[in-house]
Amino acid sequence: MTETTLPLRWRPATTEPALVRWGLTVLCLAVLGVLLFAPLIAVFAEALRDGVALAIASLSEPDARSAIRLTLLVAAVVVPLNAAFGIAAAWAITKFDWRGKPLVLTLIDLPFSVSPVVAGLMFVLLFGANSALGAWLVAHGYPIVFAVPGIMLATLFITFPFVARELIPVMLEQGRAEEEAALTLGATGWRMFFTVTLPNIRWALLYGVLLCNARAMGEFGAVAVVSGKIRGQTTTMPLMIEMFYNEYLSVAAFTMAALLALLAFVTLTLKTALEWRYADQLAANHRH
Amino acid sequence: MTLRPFALRSPTPMPGWGLSFGVMMTTLSVIVLVPMAALLWRGFIGFGPAEMWEVVNRPRVWSALALSFRAALIASVFNLVFGVALAWVLVRYRFPGKRIIDAAVDLPFALPTAVAGIALTAIYAPNGFFGAALDQAFGLKVAYTELGIWIALVFVGLPFVVRTVQPVIEEIDRETEEASATLGATRLRTLTHVVLPTLTPAALTGFALALARSVGEYGSVIFIAGNLPNVTEIAPLLIVIRLEEFDYDGAVAIAIAMLSISFTMLLVINLIQIMSRRRMGAV
Amino acid sequence: MNIEIEEISKEFGATAALHPVSLSIPSGTLVALLGPSGSGKTTLLRILGGLEFPTAGRVLFDGSDATGLTVQERRAGFVFQSYALFRHMTVFDNIAYGLRARPRKTRPPAAEIARRVTRLLDLIKLPDIGARYPSQLSGGQRQRVALARALAIEPRMLLLDEPFGALDAKVRRELRQGLRDIHDTTGLTTVFVTHDQEEAMELADLVVVMSMGRIEQVGKPEDIRARPKTAFVREFITS
User: Which of A21, B198, C36, C191 lies 20 to 30 angstroms, CA to CA, from C164?
Assistant: First the structure.
């Protein structure tokens, strides 16, 4: 049998010439390197410039510790609330046919197209000391703006669509048959939800929660407007980074940034693991 | 499923309507609608359209708005082109480390904007790694110029186009590309006439998302921008400045101007998209 | 144009899709490649069309070696199983695609392209659908448009992959006659792939029965029916 040598100019009809393939790949990797990887390396390099000990020491400062505590607290309140909202919204939208659904869907997505700064401004207007409601709340000892509740509200607004957007496509795809089957078998509503619906959407829910959490811990613009940036009280980690940075406390700023970058790593790793293992149970527009 | 006229929803044995709809609408109202209404009320009724126009119609505000939208457009157009190319590379080509690169594309979603801001500033500042090199080689200054704003916005908007286009490329019927080749088309013609048109609607979706995100972006920009009034001062920063001066009406006016411009832009993109989808029919 | 297949084999990794096969197709014949799935018939068709490159062997068109020709150079009218119509283009633009893709020197002027597309739409008996999009057509109409698109480039041969696979029985019978008519008017050497023995026997001048990457028998339909060479052929044509 004579091997037929592949002529140089022959290639499968659905590929580009090798030179183009390699050129494009190298170009893409170069852009990603300059834009994504270089900044990431810079964060850790700057944090560790004066040694690990100093970096860690900067985190044990009281202001830094209170910022970390506040960020964790905000996420701990915001993420479950948005998960609950996401489940309720996805349930109402995918299990029932009703008028005005497209409008409600648009409204849920609205926070995506509003600047975080404008979002913060909204809450300042609503609850600030110069609004009637705000003045009343302050008088009764429940300040919202320049206090922790305001930070939570602004973060809720910013992360509002995350869980719902993840669940809706998945639940649409799964349809209603399994829930209907559970009902015909005599399950009550809650029993059906916990034994049929929740197991089907758990990975998508986790996926949405991950993204929601990443954004909740990292939100800057909206929180900057409502927090008042009171050190040790209303300063979250991203705001602390800004303060350190503006005070030329470079190591402290970048160490705090490195901590958040580690959070981003964890988020990406978990997210990717979910995409690889449970691709079929995640929203259709995610890949793998 | 069609609804009977005047019925809010069609009857179903599915439980939980009241609870889920109630929770959804209450939360939506408290978190999104009431605050939004507060902004519009304050602007149009408390302050007034003419007064708002007067606040906006000043050189400093105009140049901030122009800068925000110009930089967002430039960055999003870059992300549109680069995003389609990157999505193509990630789906069609094989190279070592591809899965890690693919996962890393989402970094801007996961990395807090303030972190991105100080990190980009650190490397593109005149004494930073790239900043110094670019300055020496081309006399190009990145940080504290508009170019720096572009870079921050490219970073922030990077994943959108890639993630909307990628699944579409995966689902392309390879036979249409082969058909184009058997009809005598060069590979380049196949790409421009057969492949790109099928990617257009998804690419536009990603473009709109990136644009919406970068117009309002604050955290990653303010560190690298330099924030010089009339030159590198973005609109969201001007809102913050007005707020710090306790000029709430001024802040509201600029915010409403931003919202109106970006909603108009998104509407136009939506219309283009509907047109390009309709052309392809229902399949 | 006559087609000569000389000892063509194709391996995908470790699996052999085609053991060396040889086949000679006289000019103007209507040939069916008949076999079950996995028999290598589609691979052979794709090698003829230049969509796959053989591991070994040669393909000759009118006596000259065509093995190394690119898809574009082969000028084979190829009709895909899924039809692969361009769904963002009208039927007219789909059919005109190949002519417009020609380099400027050989590209006909727009009026000439329009004339040819109209003639092809007449040939497939769908004169009024030029402005429609593929999504607005029935399955049978799509198949005929795909055929017209392949014919528009003035191909040297016609290659069809399961051309009637996705259609219901009634439409299938109509279109079979349509393909026969088009073959007879154009006189093109035509090769089509099918797993349906009735279709092969009824339509083709020459039937090539394939199994597991080998050619089991080549012959006129009546010969194959009367004298099946192997047990496989006997079983396959009676099923």
Answer: B198
